[in-house]
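Project standup — Tuesday

K.O.: blocked on the structure for the chain from last sprint. Re-posting the sequence here as requested.
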Amino acid sequence: MSRKYFEEEVIQQTLDYNYAQHSDADKFNIAYGIDKNFLFGCGVSIASVLLANPEKALAFHVFTDFFDSEDQQRFEALAKQYATQIVVYLIDCERLKSLPSTKNWTYATYFRFIIADYFSDKTDRVLYLDADIACKGSILELIDLNFAENEIAAVVAEGELEWWTKRSVSLATPGLVSGYFNAGFILINIPLWTAENISKKA
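H.V.: unblocked you, prediction finished:
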């Protein structure tokens, strides 16, 4: 029985800009899920990771629903300049547009689940980053992190119980009393995510 919520048919096209000098087995995978408004920021984020980690074998995966010829030229030039691999996945978003969204959280929010499902039989871990994140140091600790018992490693938002209680009341969401994590920076334990069926439960 498949544990994928989003089967691979949501990926309509794949563009692989591979100028890497390392093997697939050595690479650490970093993924982004964005709409067209964040393509430029995604390129900046990728460049920041590469500049801060020049000796690391990295591969970048960009899941988006828009990617024109100008974007293709820019991302290929970026991959070539830094001798890295950038794979772009064009997503059919019709199914996603029927899911709940807000002005601040569009259907692109759900790309995280497509990413986790896509990698379910390809690798053990993927670092998901929002496109507005800039890297200022080594990611070696993330590459080597042992988190076998957890589905994800994430940044937990700070806050006192009283603050979280007020947020949960104002948003009519009792589960917020215990806080939440920053969904823009998630190191995903792919085997455990898949085994726990997280995409479907979410």
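K.O.: great, moving the ticket to review. The first strand starts at residue 11 and ends at 18. The chain has a mean pLDDT of 83.
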